Structures are given as structure tokens and as C-alpha cells.
Amino acid sequence: MKTLSSSVSNLLDKLYNLRGEDSVILVEMESQREKAEETKARTTEQKANLQTKIAELHQQHEELELQGERLKDVLSKIDRDDYATVLDQLKIDFNPAQLVEKVNNTLPNTIETVSLEARKAEEELVKVEEEMNTSTMTIEELGIRKDAALANQDKLNEYFGLALSGRINITRDSITSLLEQFKFDEEEQREAAKILMFPEDALYTYEEKIKTKEPSKSIEDVIQEPIIEPIIEPIVVPEVKEEVLDLKITPEVKEEPTVSENDPKMNVINLLKENGIDYLDFKGLEIDELIRVYDLETMISNIQYIKAIGLDTDIFINHVSIMLDKDLKDKIEVLLSVGKTKTDIYLNPSILVKYDLVKLGNVINTMKAVGMDPKNIPLMAY
User: Can you state the angle between helices 6-19 and 203-211, rounded to 10 degrees?
Assistant: First the structure.
């Protein structure tokens, strides 16, 4: 078994962690969600209490004004002299005029104190509602982010599955674009792409180590340790492999067909070659579909469009029907118009196969109708 350098081992620790349920990304999201749920529960209770308090203070304010006026009205109509004998004999200190004066002097301040307390409660309610709304939005956002993280995790596991089986057939850009979603820096992206494209150099050894149950690092170790040590030698990927990689454990030898110029298969192969696409990257069934339909104008138009917007033509691999789709340009422009990126589309080309143009528009309109932003919904969830 080969000995892995600490930098490669650390990077693989991080990659394998991201592949599982204990992914640091998923764990952190769950922690944030729990905090947001706690905040939402606390602020919901605070809101209810404040609303009750405010209602009581407003009622008290109204009663003070109403009863104060009624009291002054009653007192102002009483002449103490009419009851002087009784009041004096019983030694009752009752002076209506003085009471009216006292009410006039003290009631306004009392009412203002209640009003001030109500205003403070209302201001506090605004802050509590803002905190509650923020927590609610955070919960919703985390749900969307988790869907995206799970989609990226599925794609990462797919790449590892292909690499470990010796059937990886993707560009380095596909790998680095995906790893960028996991917040890998450029150096980590290059090293990880090399590991996946040339699994015999490190990946098989690491996988064997896992199978033999050698101790592996915990999540905390992965977070605390530096991921990549300085790389002395630059990674060199041959230019001929930059566009499309077709790495196999046991390479399958494919020969160029020697057929006539009018042979349908040769026409398809020549078309692909003229547009810089290696027909060997496609499965036999995919070539058969291109032969069966063979819409030359649509195929050339779609290939040129994909190149023009900066997408790699390997988007057609495993999704060859996209090359024959007369609405391809319109579908992509619809997705771009709602905020999806070219990278989103490149990593999830199945969306272009799943829906025709009309149904894609209906799906997006439905999201908007229920208050969802299509930009924030992962394409895998469409």
C-alpha cells in the first residue's frame, strides 16, 4: 500500500467527510437551524406577551381618560356646604373642589406614564418581530441551502463512484466548479481534481485504508488541521485531456470506423470532430440516437450556442438529446433570466431533458405564484 503525504491525506479526509451524513457543511447547517428554531420559539412567545401587555395598557389609558372626566364632572357638581354638618360631625375630610384640582394636576401625568409604557412595549414588539421574521427566513434559507448542499454532495459522490470504478469521464473544470461550491480554494480544487482524474496515485490507497479500518481523523481534526501543504511541483494536466477525460482502469481500445463518406455514423462522427468533440466520449446508444435523428442544423446550432455562452460541450455527454433540442437556447435563457448560473445548468443538465420549454415555464411560474424565488431553488428540486 502506498504511503500518502499528509497534505493528500488531509484533503481526502475533508472530501470523504463532505460525502457523508456527518459532513461539516450539513452539521453546521443543522446547528444554525436549531438556533434559528429556538429563536423563533422564544420570540413567538415574547410577541404574544407583548401584544397582551400593549392591549392592557391601551385599555388602561382609555379608562383613565374616561373615568377621570366622569369623576371631575361628578365632583364639580357637589357643593361641600350642602353636606358640611355631616362631614364635620363625622370628621370626614372631603373637599370636592380640592379633589377636582388634584385630578386635574395628577391625572395627565399618570395617563402619559401609561402611554410611555405602551410606546416602549410597542417598540420592543417591533424588534421582537424583526428577530422572529429573521429566524423564520433563516430557517427557510437553510432549507434551500441544505437542498443545494445535498445536490452537490450527490454529485461529489457520483464523481467518486466513477473515479473508484475507473470510469470517470468528466473535465477538470467540472470537478473544480463543483468543489468551488464547497468553498475549496483554487489550490485545493486542483489537487482534488488530480486525485479524481488519476485515482491510482492516491484515491485507491485511501479507499483501501478505509476498508482495512485504519483510524481516520474526526471532523474536528479535519477542521483544525491545514488542508493543503505547499505543493512544490506544479500539477500538469496534458492539454489533450483538458477538454474531455476518459480514464479507465482497463482502457477500451476503440478504432476509427472505416466507412464510406455517406455512412450515417461517419456523418455524425465527422460533425462531432469538426466541432472539437471526441465521439469516443459518447456511448453507443447515444451515437445511435444522433444517427437516428440526425438534425444537422439543430445539432450545429446547439453546439455553437453552448460554446458561445462558455459552457463545455461535455454537457452533451450522457444527455445527448440536448444536442437535438430545438428549444435548447430558449430553455437556458429562461433559467438564466430567473437567476440560475451557467454553472448551475452545467452541473444539472438533466433539467434540460426533464422539461420542454412550456413545462419549464409552468414550473417556474408555479414557484413564483407560491412565493418561492426560482433562483434559490436547486435545479435538482425543480
Answer: 70
Provide the phi-psi class of 71: left if phi over 0, else alpha when psi is between -120 and 50, else beta.
alpha
Cα 369 from Cα 89, distance rounded (Å): 81
| Alpha-carbon torsion angle 317, 320, 326, 331, nearest 10 | -50
The DSSP 8-state label assigned to residue 311 in this structure reads: -
DSSP string covering 132-168: HHHHHHHHHHHHHHHHHHHHHHHHHHHHHHHHHTT--
d(CA 202, CA 206): 6
For residue 358, the tally of other CB atoms under 10 A from its CB is: 9
Cell digits of residue 322 = 440536448
**Is the per-residue pLDDT at 261 higher than 60?**
no
Domain locations along the chain: 21-141
What value does the CA radius of gyration of the chain take, rounded to a whole number of Å?
36
Report DSSP state, residue 276: T
**Torsion from C-alpha of 352, 358, 359, 364, nearest 10 degrees:** 90
Confidence of residue 252 (pLDDT cuts 50, 70, 90): very low
pLDDT at residue 238, as a whole number: 39
Examine the pLDDT at 240 and tell me if it is beyond 50: no
Higher pLDDT: 190 or 243? It is: 190
